[in-house]
Design goal:
With about 230 residues, the chain is of the alpha/beta class. It has 2 domains: about 140 residues, 3-Layer(aba) Sandwich (Rossmann fold), CATH 3.40.50; about 80 residues, 2-Layer Sandwich (SIR2/SIRT2 'Small Domain'). Helices cover about 25% and strands about 20% of the residues. A 6-stranded parallel beta sheet has the order 5-4-1-9-10-11, sandwiched between helices. Helix 4 runs parallel beside helix 7. It binds 2'-O-acetyl adenosine-5-diphosphoribose. The site of 2'-O-acetyl adenosine-5-diphosphoribose has 27 residues, from loops.
């Protein structure tokens, strides 16, 4: 079976009702993303950061995967599919994707503030100031913030390097190192972008851009790939 690798971002979840980052001018429901999604922001105001992620966790728990997530999952009937997502929601899993790498962590997990290997499943529950990890330190969201390394990058780069077909959906490709994954593809493989606007790619050589929203664009691409 050929390997299909999908790199997804906030846009794939937009039609489920979750806001993207850059379409809202860097504000997410009125919060400055740099302020609440950075290690600096955490050190300045933990309560604010916890509130922000509690809100996002609650919202994510209340939405359903859309046709784009489902079309990606359905590709598994013909291909070995791995999804590398920058999203912290679990809509790919809920749609049925069996192999999902979360580059930027997951809302439904908390971790120790001091030790990133101590992870606790919290489902859709909030994290409050004073909630402790098993090591006695404050719990924080298990997400990667600006100013922090991305531990899954090496794994993700290896996965992208094995792709026979590469699909980029719903990401502005403006956040590094995640955006650099596009450069790990092997030469000459088919590469697709599903996005109504134009991501920040250095060169569009060899790419097919399906300039549509995720549900429509991904359903079309699925049909094309299943019939080839
Ligand atoms: P962005 O908000 O930067 O980009 C969203 C992309 O989705 C844009 O290219 C939009 O054109 C596209 N888009 C909007 N609506 C769409 C739809 N209905 N269907 C398909 N595409 C659509 O989000 P990301 O690229 O995911 O990181 O942002 C990357 C990272 O920046 C996030 O993971 C997060 C953020 O700060 C951290 O929190 C560390």
């Amino acid at each position: 079976m050929s390997n299909v690798v999908v790199l997804s971002g906030a846009g794939v979840s937009a039609e489920s009702g979750l806001a993207t980052f850059r379409d809202s001018g860097g504000l997410w429901e009125g919060y400055d993303v740099q302020e609440v999604a950075s290690i600096r922001g955490w050190n300045l105001n933990k309560e604010k950061v916890l509130d922000f992620y509690n809100m996002r966790r609650k919202q994510a728990a209340g939405v359903r995967p859309n046709k784009a997530h489902k079309a990606i999952a359905e590709l598994e009937s013909k291909f070995d599919v791995t999804v590398v997502t920058q999203n912290v929601d679990d809509l790919h899993e809920k749609a049925g994707s069996s192999s999902v790498v979360h580059l930027h962590g997951m809302l439904k997990q908390a971790r120790s503030e001091k030790d990133e290997s101590i992870i606790v499943d919290i489902g859709s529950n909030p994290i409050n100031p004073g909630d402790k990890a098993p090591d006695g330190s404050q719990l924080r969201p298990n997400v990667v913030w600006f100013g922090e390394p991305v531990p899954m990058m090496e794994t993700a780069a290896k996965i992208v390097g094995k792709a026979d077909i590469f699909i980029v959906i719903g990401t502005s490709l403006s956040v590094y190192p995640a955006a650099s994954l596009v450069s790990y593809t092997r030469k000459g493989i088919p590469k697709f972008i599903v996005d109504p606007s134009t991501p920040e790619l250095y060169s569009f050589d060899g790419w097919t851009h399906i300039r549509k929203k995720g549900e429509e664009g991904m359903s079309e691409l699925k049909k094309q790939l299943m019939n080839q």
